[in-house]
Amino acid sequence: MTELQEKTISLEARLEALLFVAASPVTPAQMAEALGIKVAEAEAGLRALEAQYALGRGLSLQWHAGRVQLTTAPQVSAVVETFLGLEATARLSRAAVEALTIIAYRQPITRPAIDAIRGVSSDGVLRSLLNKGLVQEIGRSDGPGRPIFFGTTAEFLQHFGLTSLSELPAFEQPEDQGEISENRLLKD
Q: What separation in angstroms does the CA of 97 have from each of 28, 30, 135, 167?
């Protein structure tokens, strides 16, 4: 393809092509370098592409930790699962959903902090969530014993049909928890 032919193809189309062939999520900087453009141009093109997908297309862009990837839109998940012969989305136990919710809203968070919030040990639940790829180890605390910090993954976003963590519903603390929050054992 000549440079002239390449320039007649929109920036959004070129970004879409790179996302389509990317084996994993990529940064806007990686895409800018591949296209020989500025990072700000790549980011603007990605936002324009995302807006096009928001108009009811079968694809969407998923953002996580400064990286982006092309995914199927959550609205078409059922038809895609049927077409591919996949079982319905794996069910999570109540304990897993509870721990995952804590991690999603409080990340990065350690297992002892999760245990304190839940009131029970979360070892088995965390192991299950790690095996399913919904959470990951993202570092260690500087505190005693250097406990592991946990956070959500891009697979978490896909599982729940989210394009970014900003789409999580607002966290609402129950009214009767107001007095307890003043005397909390754990600090943010």
A: 32, 34, 12, 17
